[in-house]
Design goal:
The chain is α/β, with parallel strands linked by helices and about 450 residues long. The chain is built from eleven helices and ten strands. An eight-stranded mixed sheet has the order 7-1-4-3-2-6-5-8. The protein is rod-shaped.
Length: about 450
C-alpha cells in the first residue's frame, strides 16, 4: 500500500499537466490575424490593445501604409472565442484618455455569427472602420472667434460648477447611457446611407415648400403670438388650473378604476351588439346632415339657457300666485257649467244666424263692377191674411221636399221653440233639444217642412 502512493501521486501530476496543456491550447492557440483598413491610423503603434466589450482579446502586431494611401493595421486575435471573426465586424479607434497621445486601442464590434467568416489574413474594409478624433482636430476646426467664445464658456462653466462637483459627476453618470444611445443612433444612421439621403432629400423638399409659403407661415406665427399673449393674460386662471390638476387626476384615476369594472361588465353586451354595428354606422352616416344642421339650433338653445334659467328661478313665485288663481277659475267654471250647458244647446241657432243671416248668404257676391247683393222680399205672418196662410203653408210644405227648396209658409205663434229649432231638423234627431228652458219648450215648433223634410230624407 505504501509503495502505490508515489505512483498515484505521479499519475495525478501527469493528469494535471495534461489538463493545463488542454486549457492553454483551447485558450491560446495559433495566432489569428486580420487586417483592418483605416483612413487615418491616428498615432496607433505596434502593441496597442484590441478589445471587445472592455476585454482585451489581442494586440496590434503591425501598422503599415497601403498602396492607396490608407493605413492598414494587422490585428492579432489571441482569444479563441473570437476566432474567426465574421463579415460585418466593425473596428473603431479610441483614446484611453484625453491626455494620451499615442495610447490608442482598437475596439471591435463583432459581426453576426451567421455571416460569412473572415479567414486568416482577411480584410476589414474602411467602410467598417472609424478613425479616432483628437481634441486638437476639433479645436483646429474652430475659428479664432469661436475659440474665444469657447474659452468664455469654459471659464463660465467652471465658475458655475464650482462647489457642485459631486452633483455634476452624478449628472454625467446618468447622462452616459443617453450619450451611448445617441452614439448608437448615429451609427445606425451612418449604416443606412440611402435612407439618410432620402431623409435629407425629403427635408430639402419640406424646406422648399416652407420657403414657398412664407406668408402663411408668418400668419401662423402671428396667430401663435396672439394665442400665447392671450394665454399669458390668463396666467392666473392657468395657474389655478394647474393647481387643480393633481386633484383632478386623482379623481380621474378613481373614475377610470370604476370604468374598468363597468367595461368588464359591458363586454358581453358589446359582443351581442357587434352584429348591429354596421347598421348603426349607416344610421350615423345618415344622421350626419341632421347633426350638422342641429349645431345652429343647439347654439340658439345654449344662448337661451340663461333666460330659461332665470324664468325657472322665478317659476316658484309665479306658481304661488297662479295656483290660487286656477282654483278660483275652477270654482267659477263650476258655477258657469249650467249656463254653458244652456248656451251650448243654442249653437245651431247661433251658427245659422251667423252664416245664413246677417248677410252671410245675402252678400259677398262679386263681378266686374264690384260687390253686389241680392235683395228679395220676406213676408212674415202679419204680411198675409190668416185665410191664405194655411193653404199656402200646406202647399209649400208639400212641395219643399220635392223641389228641394227652402220655401216655407209663414208661421205664427212660434213663441216657445226649443234650442236648435231655428234650423232644419237633423236626421239624427239632435235638434231641436227639448231640454231647453228646463223642459218647458215645444219641440214641435220647427220651420215649416222641417220634420217633413226629415221624414222624406229618411224614406227609402
Amino acid at each position: 500500500m505504501k509503495r502505490s502512493l508515489p505512483r498515484i501521486a505521479a499519475v495525478l501530476v501527469l493528469v494535471a499537466a495534461v489538463a493545463a496543456a488542454v486549457v492553454l491550447y483551447n485558450g491560446r492557440a495559433d495566432p489569428y490575424t486580420v487586417v483592418a483598413r483605416f483612413e487615418d491610423a491616428g498615432q496607433t503603434v505596434k502593441g496597442n490593445q484590441v478589445r471587445v466589450g472592455g476585454a482585451t482579446i489581442g494586440t496590434v502586431s503591425a501598422v503599415r501604409l497601403a498602396d492607396d494611401g490608407q493605413a492598414e493595421m494587422v490585428l492579432k486575435i489571441d482569444e479563441r472565442a473570437y476566432r474567426p471573426l465574421h463579415r460585418g465586424t466593425r473596428a473603431i479607434l479610441r483614446n484611453t484618455a484625453l491626455s494620451s497621445i499615442a495610447n490608442r486601442i482598437v475596439v471591435l464590434e463583432p459581426g453576426p455569427n451567421n455571416a460569412p467568416r473572415i479567414e486568416e489574413g482577411g480584410v476589414i474594409e474602411a467602410t467598417d472602420t472609424r478613425s479616432a478624433t483628437d481634441i486638437d482636430q476639433v479645436l483646429n476646426a474652430i475659428d479664432e472667434k469661436g475659440r474665444r467664445y469657447l474659452q468664455t464658456l469654459v471659464r463660465g462653466g467652471a465658475r458655475a460648477l464650482s462647489g457642485a462637483e459631486k452633483e455634476t459627476n452624478q449628472t454625467l453618470e446618468r447622462l452616459s447611457p443617453a450619450l451611448a444611445q445617441t452614439r448608437q443612433t448615429i451609427d445606425e444612421l451612418q449604416s443606412d446611407e440611402p435612407a439618410l439621403q432620402r431623409l435629407v432629400t425629403s427635408s430639402a423638399a419640406v424646406s422648399s415648400t416652407l420657403a414657398d409659403n412664407t406668408d402663411d407661415i408668418e400668419r401662423g406665427l402671428e396667430s401663435t403670438a396672439v394665442t400665447l399673449k392671450a394665454t399669458a393674460a390668463e396666467r392666473e386662471a392657468l395657474r389655478r388650473t394647474i393647481q387643480r390638476g393633481p386633484e383632478f387626476l386623482r379623481r380621474a384615476n378613481t373614475t377610470f378604476a370604476s370604468t374598468r369594472v363597468l367595461l368588464d361588465e359591458a363586454r358581453p353586451l358589446l359582443r351581442e351588439v357587434r352584429p348591429v354595428a354596421p347598421r348603426l354606422a349607416r344610421t350615423l352616416r345618415l344622421a350626419e346632415p341632421l347633426t350638422r344642421q342641429s349645431i345652429p339650433l343647439l347654439t340658439d338653445v345654449r344662448a337661451s339657457l340663461p333666460a330659461l334659467s332665470d324664468t325657472l328661478g322665478r317659476t316658484p313665485r309665479l306658481a304661488n300666485q297662479v295656483v290660487p288663481a286656477f282654483g278660483e277659475i275652477g270654482r267659477a267654471l263650476t258655477g258657469l257649467t249650467p249656463i254653458l250647458t244652456e248656451i251650448r244647446r243654442y249653437a245651431p241657432d247661433l251658427s245659422s244666424g251667423l252664416l245664413t243671416g246677417f248677410g252671410g248668404k245675402a252678400g259677398g257676391y262679386y263681378d266686374a263692377n264690384g260687390h253686389y247683393a241680392r235683395i228679395a222680399p220676406t213676408l212674415n205672418a202679419t204680411a198675409l191674411p190668416d185665410l191664405l196662410s194655411p193653404i199656402l203653408g200646406g202647399l209649400l210644405d208639400t212641395l219643399a221636399p220635392i223641389l228641394g227648396t227652402g220655401l216655407s209658409a209663414p208661421q205664427t205663434g212660434m213663441t216657445n221653440r226649443c234650442p236648435g229649432a231655428g234650423a232644419q231638423t237633423h236626421p239624427d234627431g239632435s235638434n231641436p233639444n227639448p231640454a231647453g228652458h228646463s223642459g218647458r219648450c215645444d219641440p214641435n215648433q220647427v220651420p215649416l217642412g222641417g220634420r217633413n223634410a226629415v221624414k222624406a230624407d229618411a224614406t227609402p
